[in-house]
Amino acid sequence: MTPAVYRPATVGRGELLARLDSVLHTRGRALLTGPAGVGKTEVALAVAARAESSGERVLWLPTLPADRDIPGAAAAALVASVSASVSWPVPGAHGGPGTPPGPDGAGAPGGFDILEGLPGPQRTAVAMLCREAPIPEHGWDPIALRLALAQILRTLAARGPVLLVVDGVQRIDADSADLLRFALHLAPSALRVVAVETPAAYGPDAPRTSGSQPDAAGPEPLWVPSEADVLFVPPLHADEIAELLIHHRLPSRMAGRIHKASGGNPRLALAVGRSLADARTPVHHAEALSLSGRARDLARQLLGAASPVVRGTLLLAALALRPTASLIRRAGRRTAEADLAAAERANLISLKEDGTVAFTAGVLPSTLVHDACWTERSDGHAALALVVDDPVEAVRHRALATDVPDELLAAQVAAAADTARRRGNSALAAELALLAAESTPVQNGARRLTRLVDAAEEAARAARADLAMRAATDLLARDAAPADRVRARLAVLDTAGQGLSGLDEIYVHAMEDSEDDTALRAAVQLRLALKYVLADGDPARSRAAAVESAALAASVGDRKTAARALTVQARMERVLGSPDAERILAEARALEVFERPLGIRNAAQILTIRHAMFDDRLTDARDQLNALLPLVERRGSVEDAIELFRTLAEVEARQGQCAAALSHAGRSLALTLEAGLSPGPAWYALALAETAGGSFARAASYARRSAQASEEECDHVFLSRSLYALGRVQLVAGDVANAVDTLRRVQTGERAQSTVDPSMLRWHEELVEALLANDAPEEAAALLADVRPVAERLGRTTVLLGCDRAYALYLAASGNLEEATRLLTETAERFALAGLPLDRGRTLIALARVERRRRRRSAAQNALQAAAAVFERAGAFPWLALATETPSRTTEPTPAGGGAPSALTDAELRLAQLVRQGASNQEAAAKLYLSVKTVEARLTRIYQKLDVRSRAQLATALNAWPGHRSAPRTTDSPAAG
Q1: CA distances in angstroms from 840 to 517, 843, 868, 976, listed in the order given
Q2: What secondary structure does DSSP assign to 818-852, as a single string?
Q3: Which of 139, 756, 802, 874 is the most exposed, fewest CB within 10 Å of its CB?
Q4: Per-residue confidence (pLDDT) for residue 966, from 0 to 100
Q5: What are phi and psi of 367, to 5 degrees?
């Protein structure tokens, strides 16, 4: 029995906990089941914490492996713990019936032990169970012991509701299971029970503990099936694994690969995550996951649930590309179906109706192969080569069954790689291309090098970073030509995703080796241009590298590289505010007509769409994206699909197509995690989509995750974007101080990157509103004065609309409410004409806020109703809540002092409320994150507006105001404007 100290609810278990609560309140009994490490105990702890917080007594009974072989062990532990920790005062004794136990678990003076109320035979039986009395040869009285345990639980429940948690039902001995089953059957409804079970494998060779019966089918149940509901604790989704890693302060950038390795098993995921965190050097996306002994040991523990015979069958499944029960049986495992059924029972695999086998975690087949000797692996591949029905797979198994290089076999594997490529199976083609190179004899060195280069480039096309790195490492260890070394290094760079910061050595060597080859030098300069903007945050340097790359490529007639380089240059020209951006992009598009790129990522076509999005030509952007969608889904790479869905989500969130934005952002994230790429960009898209039509809280969570992953990857571009998304949500939620801090980080980062064009990341208007809410009107005005001329020069009309809304709020903060109302009304209409419904609705909320300050109740209500209609049509549910939460207020009468509190800004009202509650200037400054001088100046303005001269008069003015509020309402937050 453990102390009643429990942890908070675990990641990704909200729905399961709700179901468990419902079952406990309706049935009173629940069995949590699932594989080891999936988090069953964590769920039980969360339920126990909830029960304890509501005043319920919680009994926690953990079991140990040795308990299974000790008669009465679990029942004795339960009785002994209850006896030691629970006692109540004798009726009428000092302290009354409600006196709680003392700190040592004892009751008040005059108390008696819970066992004292039992009849003599029952007390004797309990003493024997707890080894406090000798056990006669015929044993204890089973009936007395049954009745005693039932009475103990009834007595506990009579004093109030009780939750009993039995953790590890499979380890309970048969005697204890019988006693608990009887006692629980007679227990009152006030006693609720949660049992936690890890199912064991079964089958003709299932491993058993010593002393168990050969025909034992599993643990003794605590109740008949009809008395309880069984709840399966499923593995976590990839996004939940990412959240789990962040919760445990582990790197989240590899969340997708960790999820595949762990199969969503939290214990395995944390072990793999700690392996990566403890690595001497950061593990790159292009490298295999380094698994520590802890992660491997956990995998071995899971596999240990199956017998050696079953594990032998599973090894064949791990070696096969498309394992099925029939294939494994034909390969020599006559009991394949029974073995696989046992493995499925142990949650090691899932077995579909057609016999297809899939491992529940990627670390399981890798550990099986890792722990098998060469002979076992060779024999398995040889057996599979004879029975597979696909010649490509047969060649693969024959190559893996031998460690002797053979040119004929290598040529067959290379031909199989070509076949796989034609079939569209790029991942298999990449694996076979590398296998062909590794099967080439040493005396054919030149051919081996050629095949290694082909393998690296094939891996890059398949986004198989691990295979690209393997091929490149093998080639670079040999006497390869400079051109071959460059091509191999470029393949590694092309699979790096966001993680370009740790690859400086590859760039340096690629530059050295490409000195005598103009085409390759152009290709290296192109990759450098991408690195300079993503990893170094230097668009000017990126532009220079792109210009050089385009010139070099044009000089040798390489239109494909020239088009890509011009695309990067156009992107940087836009960032730096150059009017040449569109002209250069048009040149890139013209080259793409002749040399169609293999994909859309970093292509002129997708950049053209993004420019349309920046300019708020959203319908045009969305039409072009939808036209590309079928092509990318049919023939594009996974990175193309990720880029497309992410851009679609951004366009739709801006356009007010909220449901579609959430769907496409979700698909982008799923593909990202499945591919093992860094989730930072996809989380950013989800933050925007959730802000538009999901939940502000989830939006903030995704934005924080994106910022963390981008920092881990040293990706300056998406770090700024994710911080912008976070600061915007913080502003919406009224967290003004943090919003200012976050948006200032964006400002610092964008200025450090020399970003000029304000349309690419619209943080300026958000920071202006945050500064106004934080009572920094001078700084807000200065920022507006900086950004407006740039937007006018570049013709960014919708950026100017955002500036107009921010300027209207500045007018309102300055007391010019009538002019602010006029400008907000005009701006809302112009947002509608621009096809930006969410910005229109947000402006209408700001208008309602100003109208309330003018005490124009009807106008404020009309503006809110119009905003609500806009948000409802768009499916912008969090914004709809902002427009509908605030009740309409009557026009506030002017207090005796002469001024109305409605004339105060939100920042002033927050300070006024603190002063009314008795805060000193120093205390208010600390709570509002302001200087004392700022508080003094703001308080002076409050006194002037309300025509008061002291804190007492200020409190009187606020208390006399019928509409006074303790803090600004959500819709009155600065983000509403």
Answers
A1: 55, 5, 11, 11
A2: HHHHHHHHHHHHHHHHTT-HHHHHHHHHHHHHHHH
A3: 139
A4: 45
A5: -70, -40
